[in-house]
Design goal:
single chain, mainly beta, seven-stranded parallel β-sheet, 20 strands, 0% helix, globular
Length: 172
């Protein structure tokens, strides 16, 4: 189990992922980090013969300055794409409980080729209690991807340079 991790004030570039929690991960904080040309910051709750939840992870004041990623993500699964601050619950026929719970995404700044994404909500119970607030996401196409079944509170986010305070800029 990965628990009580503090990943603070680091710089990540040209890597598959900046930070990834998967399997059992509990009570960790990812704050003040910057990422360029990685798949971003994410956590996944999974099922490997038993529940391996990802609960109470906080993403605070991180920056994705260049979200372009090539051959990145978990297991290099992204051929070419955008970076995320993301939380995912992987469906399993054996599982009937939340795998992702208590996620906070606050104060992050994401470039045009990055987004916030919550996944695995289709089952209606895998992801619970997510707070997405006070982020700046310059991606105009899909700044935040989260189905209503995700049980997420999404508030006070800005989605373009002209939305709110124009003095805001990406970068540490």
């Amino acid at each position: 189990m990965a628990q009580h991790y503090l990943i603070v004030d680091n710089t990540f570039s040209d890597a598959g992922l900046a930070v990834q929690f998967y399997g059992t991960s509990v009570n960790s904080v990812v704050a003040g980090n910057s990422s360029d040309r990685t798949a971003g910051f994410l956590n996944e709750g999974l099922w490997y013969h038993h529940p391996q939840p990802s609960w109470y992870i906080q993403y605070l004041d991180n920056v994705i300055g260049d979200g372009s990623v090539y051959r990145g993500g978990p297991n290099n699964s992204i051929f070419s794409g955008e970076a995320v601050v993301g939380a995912y619950g992987a469906p399993s026929e054996e599982n009937h409980s939340p795998l992702v719970r208590g996620i906070v995404m606050r104060g992050n700044k994401l470039a045009e080729n990055a987004r916030i994404e919550i996944g695995g909500c289709d089952a209606g119970f895998l992801v619970r209690d997510v707070l997405i607030e006070q982020n700046v996401v310059l991606n105009k196409v899909s700044p935040i991807v989260a189905a209503s079944a995700c049980h997420a509170v999404i508030r006070n986010n800005r989605f373009s340079p002209g939305d709110g305070d124009q003095s805001e800029k990406l970068g540490p």
